[in-house]
Structure formats: structure tokens, C-alpha cells
Amino acid sequence: MARTDPARAVTLTDVARLAGVSVATASKALNGRDQVKDSTRQRVVEAAERLSFSPNALARGLLAGRTGTVGLLTSDLEGRFVIPILMGAEDAFGAGQVSVFLCDARGDAIREQYHLRALLGRRVDGLIIVGRQTDPRPSLGPDIPVPVVYAYAPSDHPDDRSLTPDNTGAGRMAVEHLVACGRTRIAHITGEHAYAAARDRAAGVRDALTAAGLELVGDVMYSEWSERWGRDATAMLLEQHPEIDAILCGSDQIARGALDMAHALGRSVPDDVAVMGFDNWEVLTTNSRPELTSIDANLQQLGRTAAQWVFAALDGKDIGTGTQFVDGRLVIRGSTVARR
Amino acid sequence: MARTDPARAVTLTDVARLAGVSVATASKALNGRDQVKDSTRQRVVEAAERLSFSPNALARGLLAGRTGTVGLLTSDLEGRFVIPILMGAEDAFGAGQVSVFLCDARGDAIREQYHLRALLGRRVDGLIIVGRQTDPRPSLGPDIPVPVVYAYAPSDHPDDRSLTPDNTGAGRMAVEHLVACGRTRIAHITGEHAYAAARDRAAGVRDALTAAGLELVGDVMYSEWSERWGRDATAMLLEQHPEIDAILCGSDQIARGALDMAHALGRSVPDDVAVMGFDNWEVLTTNSRPELTSIDANLQQLGRTAAQWVFAALDGKDIGTGTQFVDGRLVIRGSTVARR
DNA sequence: CTGTTAGCGCTTTCAT
DNA sequence: ATGAAAGCGCTAACAG
């Protein structure tokens, strides 16, 4: 049962006493220091096990100046981005080596400040700040006494270190895939123009089309990040430009709507028209009919790199400044390539 | 920029020196103890602010025996359940008062053990264990020295304290809604029979049907938790039982598939047939056409209660044992009720 | 190889 | 009202 321990937690002193040595020796024995006789170490280890001794990380941290903890401060309410990033960070840190405080600021600057203070008070060794869009976010400033890496949303200050998906590259990658599939009349439906993600992907789309000697069919269609918009835009598109053979959508949600409407209007996917999205949100991409080709932002990789940077900075290495872009990964499914 | 502090962090000693008092007095002043002259307190507070002093929570925790941290140990890879639970917990704890370590065991018992040891070593005040299904999970056993609450997945040991969605009640609630909408020929498509969530919801469905003097149309259709199954099952259903006027689906994903196929077969939703799901996963429910009625499991509430229990246990209160069920909440949308 | 000592930053008696 | 001192659990220097 979940009981509040009435007895004091077992300490190194208890172990030392049981093993019949001093705490110092016990400490050395358990930490693999080499000035300990094998038989002594043996005794200490056994004593520790018998008492199920678990060293107090607070005491250790207090002394070492390092706590082995990292703060992940997010505003991503759904956890769509932060969970893969957390997993990547855990990978990089090694499970159990480093523990991660996850704080959700819910897009509220005040709450963010609270959490920030708390994390610094707990002497985290580093911070990873996860935004919910790829638009630059306000910097925490230069006075944070630990390494900070901004993930997903870059910092708006050039001296900070940020890591964000390469949406322009992803846009290019998408078009290159469609072109490789033989598509030449490509339209682009996307989300809100206010989002850098939408604009950047669109820019990449244009680049790649130009490079392929093609032109976008119609204008980039900006509106909301929703299935509804995907449906509505697709209806308009197929009406005005019946010749299109590919609809590139700015998100998987939009793509789901496009797929839906294409079917409703009697177009076969991918035979008549290819459809693809961005984000590779599995619940959407692998459940549609056909399954949806998408660009995965490699967030787990992003999280891993962010964590490695924090570590590197801790070790005194220079991790530089500015924003680094993480490549996306094309995930091909049935909505752009006919089933074999 | 994110720099590793070259200078030592500012300590209470620094503050005391600047204020011209002893550390003891500084401590009292900052912690609102009442044996301090107002003018002295003033000076100390100012000094602390000037130095942007942030008390070392490790040192404090070492002394107090409480750390103000809680471990959230999950195996919910997508974060679908754990994020609302985390938010609920943060609500209950108060942002900044308590910090939450989030660890993802990824369904791996070894990794779970690693994380558990790490968390206990960091002297968390309590643990919330979040499973990814509502089936009972192995207990961590009686020897955890801090309060443990199992959330979402209950523990398989009766002496543990668990909190899980009331799926039976949710099944009942769903049927009651459909009946209230005038539906009488109701079918039930759901996920894998191996999942307690599927079986429990189905049991509730049967209860409520019986109570209403109705019978399920056909058998409960168990298979996978996917849109594909929703589509396939719906096709079979409409073929074999064209008279049905409601399809209750075991998840929103299945419901999306059902919606899709109902349309494809020329049935109007909700006029000819009502469709509803469970989970209220917004990306699915609010983007479909029509939007999907669903039962929300109130996970944020669940997280809040779990956190409150941990706290209560810490304060020495008896939080009892066994599993408590959290009521779901009906969210009515257009798939069961025609738009006004 | 082992033990003694000091001290990480803080709170809390207990004197003054 | 203030300060000196002890100690939370641990590790690192230094002595022996």
C-alpha cells in the first residue's frame, strides 16, 4: 500500500554501521572508488542491498553542484510535440541517469515564470523550452544560470540556442516526392498564414516547384488548420482547377479533409490525385483510406539533440548560438503511391 | 545566452552578508517567521531581490525531509492520457509549489524499475503511476516508502490506491443519451476484447439497454481500435441490420470509421443513424462531419484527484485502498443530435 | 586501505 | 530580535 514511511529512510550511515565501516569507506565502496579492499566493498554492497539503500540524490546534488535533473518547460497543451521530445531527451540522458521535470505553462507567461523560478530553485542542470508553434518565442533572457535550449519554437534572440524543424526543407521534400511520383499540377492548401510553419512550408514548396520547372496551381490557400478547411478548399480547388493531380496539405488534418472531399467528388486517390500532409500524426495518417503520406518532423531526434546540447554545455563545451534546423523525414504511404 | 554559470549561485549567506545580518536571521526574514524586526526583514528582502536570490530547494529538502516533488511514471507512449493527468496534477499542486518528474517507461518493466529507483533516490514525496489501458497493472508492491496512486490503469493489488475511468458507467451514459434521442435499434462496435475498456463499456451498454427495455442489435462487435475496423464493421452492420438507427462505437477512432462508411453507404448522420464514440479526443471529434458526440473520461479531473490523494496521504490522512471510478462526461455534438 | 574532518545551503533550536 | 551552532546525507581531502 501507499503508506507514508513512518521510519526514517535508510542512509549511508545505516549501511556503514551494518557493514562495520565508516561512512566514508561505505561511500567509496558503493561509488566504485578504487581505494577499497574487495572484501570490504563486498560487505558494504551487501549491507546496502539488505537495507535496500537508495542514496539521497539531494544530498549528493547539494555537494556536487549538479543535480542530474533537467527542466522541460512547455506550452504545448496537447503534448503532441512535447512527448516525443521528452522521449528523445530521456534517450539521450539515459533512463534513470537524468530525470526530467515537465512543466506546462499553458501559454501563460506568468505561469511560465512561476515554473521557471521553481525549476531554478530546484537547481536543474539545464532547461529545454518547448513551444507549441515554430514561430520564435520570447527569450528567457541572458540571465538564466544554466544552459537553455529552445526546442520546436526557437527563441527570438540570436544569442540563444534553438532547435526547430526545417519546414522550408520539408516543403521542398514534399514537392520533390510528388514530382518524383510524376505529378506536375500541384496545389497547396495550408493553415493560418500567421504561423511560420505554414509560410515556411509554402516557401519550400515554391522553391522546389521552381527548381523542377513547375508552377503551383492557383495560389497557396491559407486558412485554418482543420479538416473542415481541407474539405472546403479541396472542393473549391477541384472546381476551379479540375486538372490538378496532387494536393499538398499543410498538415495531416487538412489532408484528411482533402482526402474526404476528393472521394466525395469522385476522385480516386492516388490515381486521379495524390494527397499528402505534414506532421505524420499517426492517428490521422495510418487510419485514413488510403493511408496518408506525410513528412515527419523527427521530434524525437530533435529532443535527443536538445538534450545532448544541454549536456555538452554543462560539460563546458561551446554549443554555439542561433537556430539549427532539423530535417524532416518523408513517410510514404498509399495516398501518393498506388499500392503494389 | 544559455551560459553555464561561472560564478557560484547566490546563497543565503550572500544575502545575509549584503543585508548585514546572520544567515539565521536572513532565513527567518525570508520565510515570514515572526521573530524579525520589520526593518530588518525589509533589508533582507531587498538584498535577496538585488541578488535575485533563489533558495536552494535541495538544501531545504534535505533538511525538511520533503522535497515538493512528485513522480509521474507512465507507459502511455502517446501522452494522450498522461498530459491531461499532468495538468490536473499541476492544478491540484499549484504551479511552482510542487514540481513533477515525468518518466516514460515505454511499457518496459526494466525501464520502469530504473525510473522508479531514480525517483525514489530523488526523494519524491509521492508517485502517480499512469498506465496506458484501464486493465489492472502489476502493483509496485507494498515497499514503496512514499504514497502511490495508480491512475488510469488500476493496480492489481487490492491494498493499493487506484483511480480509473468508470467505463461501465460511460457505456450506460452513452446508451441513455441515444435512447433519450429516440433511438431504439442500437448496435455496438468496439475495440479488442482483451481490453477491459472495451468489455466494461459493453457491459454498461447492455445494462442500460436492459433498463430501457431494449436489446442490442446483433452482438457486440469486438476487433481493433481503428478507423478501418469502424468502417468494415459498419458496412457489415448496415448490410445485416439495415434497420439500425444508432451505432455506438467503443472509441472515437472507430466512430470516425463508422461515420465515413455510413456516408459512403448513403446514410445520413444523425438523421438515419446516430453515431457516437468514447474518449472525446478532440482532433477526431471536432473535425468530423458532423462533429462527433463522445464521452469524455475527465482525465484532468482524474489527475487532480490523484494529486490530491498523494497530498492527503503525505499529510498523514488515510486515503483508503481499492479502486475508485471517475465518472465520464457526455459531450453532445452533431452526430447524435440534428443541428438546430 | 580506512577513518577523520570539513562542508555543500539551508532551517531550527537555543542562547543571548 | 538576533546570532551561534548543530545537522539533514553525502563526498572529497587528507591523515593515518
TrEMBL record, chains A, B:
One family name in Pfam for this protein: Peripla_BP_3
The keyword Chloroplast appears for this protein: no
Keywords per UniProt: DNA-binding, Transcription, Transcription regulation
Domain HTH lacI-type: from-to ranges: 10-64
InterPro entries tied to this protein: HTH_LacI, LacI/GalR-like_sensor, Lambda_DNA-bd_dom_sf, Peripla_BP_I
SUPFAM superfamilies, sorted: lambda repressor-like DNA-binding domains, Periplasmic binding protein-like I
An MF annotation (GO) of this entry: DNA-binding transcription factor activity
This protein's name: LacI family transcriptional regulator
Protein source organism: Cellulomonas chitinilytica
